[in-house]
Protein backbone atom coordinates (compact mmCIF):
# COMPACT_ATOMS: atom_id res chain seq x y z
CA UNK A 1 0.00 0.00 0.00
CA UNK A 2 1.32 3.46 -0.82
CA UNK A 3 2.81 5.13 2.22
CA UNK A 4 3.24 1.88 4.14
CA UNK A 5 6.30 1.67 6.38
CA UNK A 6 9.35 -0.04 4.94
CA UNK A 7 9.78 -3.68 5.84
CA UNK A 8 13.39 -4.49 6.76
CA UNK A 9 13.95 -8.23 6.95
CA UNK A 10 17.09 -9.01 8.91
CA UNK A 11 18.88 -12.35 8.67
CA UNK A 12 21.69 -13.66 10.85
CA UNK A 13 24.35 -13.76 8.13
CA UNK A 14 26.86 -16.46 7.25
CA UNK A 15 30.24 -16.95 5.61
CA UNK A 16 28.56 -19.53 3.39
CA UNK A 17 27.21 -17.83 0.23
CA UNK A 18 24.33 -20.31 0.03
CA UNK A 19 22.81 -18.71 3.12
CA UNK A 20 22.65 -15.17 1.74
CA UNK A 21 21.37 -16.49 -1.60
CA UNK A 22 18.54 -18.32 0.16
CA UNK A 23 17.36 -15.33 2.19
CA UNK A 24 17.62 -13.14 -0.93
CA UNK A 25 15.31 -15.59 -2.72
CA UNK A 26 12.94 -15.39 0.23
CA UNK A 27 12.90 -11.59 -0.02
CA UNK A 28 12.02 -11.91 -3.70
CA UNK A 29 8.91 -13.83 -2.64
CA UNK A 30 8.17 -11.28 0.08
CA UNK A 31 8.34 -8.38 -2.39
CA UNK A 32 6.23 -10.23 -4.94
CA UNK A 33 3.47 -10.75 -2.36
CA UNK A 34 3.11 -6.98 -1.73
CA UNK A 35 4.84 -5.07 -4.51
CA UNK A 36 3.51 -1.75 -3.22
CA UNK A 37 5.37 -1.95 0.10
CA UNK A 38 9.14 -1.30 0.14
CA UNK A 39 11.05 -4.30 1.49
CA UNK A 40 14.78 -4.40 2.16
CA UNK A 41 17.17 -7.13 3.29
CA UNK A 42 19.79 -6.66 6.00
CA UNK A 43 22.10 -8.83 8.08
CA UNK A 44 23.19 -8.92 11.70
CA UNK A 45 26.70 -10.09 10.88
CA UNK A 46 29.06 -11.52 8.26
CA UNK A 47 27.14 -10.27 5.21
CA UNK A 48 26.33 -6.88 3.71
CA UNK A 49 24.37 -4.75 3.98
CA UNK A 50 24.42 -4.51 7.77
CA UNK A 51 21.20 -3.65 9.56
CA UNK A 52 22.53 -0.27 10.66
CA UNK A 53 23.48 0.67 7.11
CA UNK A 54 20.06 -0.26 5.78
CA UNK A 55 18.24 1.72 8.47
CA UNK A 56 20.46 4.75 7.85
CA UNK A 57 19.61 4.47 4.16
CA UNK A 58 15.88 4.25 4.92
CA UNK A 59 16.14 7.41 7.03
CA UNK A 60 18.22 9.21 4.38
CA UNK A 61 15.51 8.53 1.80
CA UNK A 62 13.10 10.56 3.90
CA UNK A 63 11.05 7.66 5.25
CA UNK A 64 9.94 8.02 8.85
CA UNK A 65 8.83 4.50 9.77
CA UNK A 66 10.24 1.00 9.37
CA UNK A 67 9.27 -2.41 10.67
CA UNK A 68 12.16 -4.80 11.27
CA UNK A 69 11.27 -8.49 10.89
CA UNK A 70 13.92 -10.93 12.18
CA UNK A 71 14.37 -13.89 9.84
CA UNK A 72 15.12 -16.03 12.88
CA UNK A 73 13.49 -19.28 13.95
CA UNK A 74 13.99 -18.78 17.68
CA UNK A 75 13.77 -15.95 20.17
CA UNK A 76 17.24 -16.28 21.65
CA UNK A 77 20.16 -13.87 22.17
CA UNK A 78 20.18 -12.38 18.67
CA UNK A 79 16.49 -11.49 18.80
CA UNK A 80 16.34 -10.46 22.45
CA UNK A 81 19.66 -8.60 22.86
CA UNK A 82 21.68 -8.02 19.68
CA UNK A 83 18.94 -6.74 17.40
CA UNK A 84 17.26 -4.39 19.92
CA UNK A 85 20.65 -2.82 20.66
CA UNK A 86 21.34 -2.26 16.97
CA UNK A 87 17.91 -0.73 16.48
CA UNK A 88 18.42 1.58 19.44
CA UNK A 89 21.71 2.75 17.93
CA UNK A 90 20.04 3.38 14.57
CA UNK A 91 17.21 5.28 16.24
CA UNK A 92 19.72 7.47 18.09
CA UNK A 93 21.43 8.33 14.80
CA UNK A 94 18.14 8.94 13.03
CA UNK A 95 15.71 10.53 15.51
CA UNK A 96 13.01 11.07 12.87
CA UNK A 97 12.91 7.36 11.99
CA UNK A 98 10.50 5.31 14.11
CA UNK A 99 11.42 1.64 14.35
CA UNK A 100 9.31 -1.33 15.40
CA UNK A 101 10.81 -4.78 15.91
CA UNK A 102 8.50 -7.60 14.91
CA UNK A 103 8.45 -11.08 16.40
CA UNK A 104 10.71 -13.81 15.04
CA UNK A 105 9.33 -16.33 12.58
CA UNK A 106 9.24 -18.85 15.42
CA UNK A 107 7.54 -22.21 15.54
CA UNK A 108 4.62 -21.05 13.40
CA UNK A 109 2.25 -23.91 12.50
CA UNK A 110 2.84 -23.16 8.82
CA UNK A 111 6.58 -23.67 9.29
CA UNK A 112 5.87 -26.98 10.96
CA UNK A 113 3.92 -27.96 7.85
CA UNK A 114 6.86 -26.95 5.63
CA UNK A 115 9.15 -29.09 7.80
CA UNK A 116 6.69 -31.97 7.57
CA UNK A 117 6.66 -31.66 3.78
CA UNK A 118 10.47 -31.74 3.68
CA UNK A 119 10.42 -34.94 5.75
CA UNK A 120 7.70 -36.50 3.60
CA UNK A 121 9.57 -35.70 0.39
CA UNK A 122 12.87 -37.10 1.67
CA UNK A 123 11.31 -40.30 2.98
CA UNK A 124 9.30 -40.86 -0.21
CA UNK A 125 12.40 -40.41 -2.37
CA UNK A 126 14.00 -43.26 -0.43
CA UNK A 127 10.93 -45.49 -0.46
CA UNK A 128 10.67 -45.27 3.30
CA UNK A 129 7.07 -44.11 3.28
CA UNK A 130 6.01 -47.75 2.84
CA UNK A 131 7.32 -48.68 6.30
CA UNK A 132 7.01 -45.58 8.51
CA UNK A 133 7.15 -47.74 11.65
CA UNK A 134 10.87 -48.24 11.00
CA UNK A 135 11.58 -44.54 10.58
CA UNK A 136 13.01 -42.12 13.15
CA UNK A 137 13.47 -38.38 12.70
CA UNK A 138 16.17 -36.18 14.17
CA UNK A 139 15.06 -32.56 14.26
CA UNK A 140 18.36 -30.64 14.01
CA UNK A 141 18.58 -27.01 15.06
CA UNK A 142 21.29 -24.47 15.79
CA UNK A 143 21.04 -24.58 19.57
CA UNK A 144 21.34 -21.71 21.99
CA UNK A 145 22.99 -20.69 25.25
CA UNK A 146 19.40 -20.10 26.41
CA UNK A 147 17.94 -23.24 27.98
CA UNK A 148 14.46 -21.81 27.42
CA UNK A 149 15.10 -21.45 23.69
CA UNK A 150 16.37 -25.03 23.50
CA UNK A 151 13.28 -26.26 25.34
CA UNK A 152 11.11 -24.52 22.75
CA UNK A 153 12.92 -26.41 20.00
CA UNK A 154 12.48 -29.68 21.87
CA UNK A 155 8.78 -28.89 22.07
CA UNK A 156 8.78 -28.42 18.30
CA UNK A 157 10.21 -31.94 17.94
CA UNK A 158 7.31 -33.26 19.99
CA UNK A 159 4.84 -31.36 17.81
CA UNK A 160 6.44 -32.82 14.68
CA UNK A 161 6.18 -36.32 16.17
CA UNK A 162 2.50 -35.73 16.90
CA UNK A 163 1.99 -34.49 13.35
CA UNK A 164 3.80 -37.37 11.62
CA UNK A 165 3.31 -40.24 14.05
CA UNK A 166 7.06 -40.89 13.75
CA UNK A 167 9.42 -40.96 16.77
CA UNK A 168 11.41 -37.72 16.79
CA UNK A 169 14.43 -36.59 18.80
CA UNK A 170 16.04 -33.17 18.84
CA UNK A 171 19.73 -32.37 18.39
CA UNK A 172 21.73 -29.15 18.20
CA UNK A 173 24.70 -28.09 16.14
CA UNK A 174 26.15 -25.92 18.93
CA UNK A 175 24.73 -27.45 22.11
CA UNK A 176 23.66 -30.72 23.66
CA UNK A 177 22.15 -33.13 22.84
CA UNK A 178 24.36 -33.72 19.84
CA UNK A 179 23.41 -35.73 16.77
CA UNK A 180 25.04 -38.93 18.02
CA UNK A 181 22.87 -38.98 21.16
CA UNK A 182 19.67 -38.32 19.24
CA UNK A 183 20.36 -41.13 16.77
CA UNK A 184 21.30 -43.51 19.61
CA UNK A 185 17.97 -42.82 21.32
CA UNK A 186 16.02 -43.50 18.14
CA UNK A 187 17.89 -46.73 17.42
CA UNK A 188 17.35 -47.86 20.99
CA UNK A 189 13.63 -47.34 20.39
CA UNK A 190 13.67 -49.63 17.36
CA UNK A 191 14.10 -47.21 14.44
CA UNK A 192 16.55 -48.45 11.82
CA UNK A 193 15.90 -45.80 9.15
CA UNK A 194 16.95 -42.38 10.38
CA UNK A 195 16.37 -39.04 8.70
CA UNK A 196 17.64 -35.63 9.79
CA UNK A 197 15.10 -32.81 9.47
CA UNK A 198 17.02 -29.49 9.54
CA UNK A 199 15.25 -26.70 11.40
CA UNK A 200 17.25 -24.17 9.41
CA UNK A 201 16.10 -21.44 7.09
CA UNK A 202 19.09 -21.87 4.79
CA UNK A 203 22.02 -24.22 4.21
CA UNK A 204 25.36 -23.15 5.58
CA UNK A 205 28.35 -24.08 7.71
CA UNK A 206 26.23 -25.50 10.54
CA UNK A 207 24.15 -27.74 8.31
CA UNK A 208 27.40 -28.97 6.75
CA UNK A 209 28.80 -29.60 10.24
CA UNK A 210 25.79 -31.76 11.05
CA UNK A 211 26.21 -33.71 7.82
CA UNK A 212 29.87 -34.26 8.62
CA UNK A 213 29.08 -35.83 11.99
CA UNK A 214 27.47 -38.82 10.25
CA UNK A 215 28.05 -38.65 6.47
CA UNK A 216 25.87 -41.70 5.77
CA UNK A 217 22.81 -40.23 7.47
CA UNK A 218 20.31 -38.73 4.98
CA UNK A 219 19.06 -35.18 5.46
CA UNK A 220 15.84 -33.55 4.33
CA UNK A 221 16.04 -30.14 2.70
CA UNK A 222 16.14 -26.94 4.77
CA UNK A 223 13.02 -24.77 4.99
CA UNK A 224 14.29 -22.50 2.20
CA UNK A 225 12.39 -19.68 0.45
CA UNK A 226 9.02 -21.37 0.73
CA UNK A 227 5.90 -19.28 0.02
CA UNK A 228 4.72 -20.00 3.57
CA UNK A 229 7.72 -18.12 4.95
CA UNK A 230 6.91 -15.06 2.86
CA UNK A 231 3.36 -15.10 4.25
CA UNK A 232 4.68 -15.37 7.80
CA UNK A 233 7.04 -12.43 7.25
CA UNK A 234 4.11 -10.25 6.25
CA UNK A 235 2.07 -11.50 9.19
CA UNK A 236 4.87 -10.48 11.55
CA UNK A 237 5.00 -7.08 9.84
CA UNK A 238 1.24 -6.58 10.19
CA UNK A 239 1.22 -7.65 13.84
CA UNK A 240 4.08 -5.28 14.63
CA UNK A 241 2.23 -2.37 13.01
CA UNK A 242 -0.88 -3.24 15.00
CA UNK A 243 1.11 -3.08 18.24
CA UNK A 244 2.45 0.39 17.34
CA UNK A 245 5.34 0.16 19.78
CA UNK A 246 8.06 2.21 18.06
CA UNK A 247 11.68 2.44 19.16
CA UNK A 248 12.96 5.99 19.15
CA UNK A 249 16.00 7.85 20.41
From TrEMBL:
Pfam families: CbiX (PF01903)
SUPFAM superfamilies named in the record: Chelatase
Keyword Metal-binding: yes
Keyword Ligase applies: no
Domain of life: Bacteria
Record keywords, A-Z: Lyase, Metal-binding
Name used for this protein in its record: Cobalamin biosynthesis protein
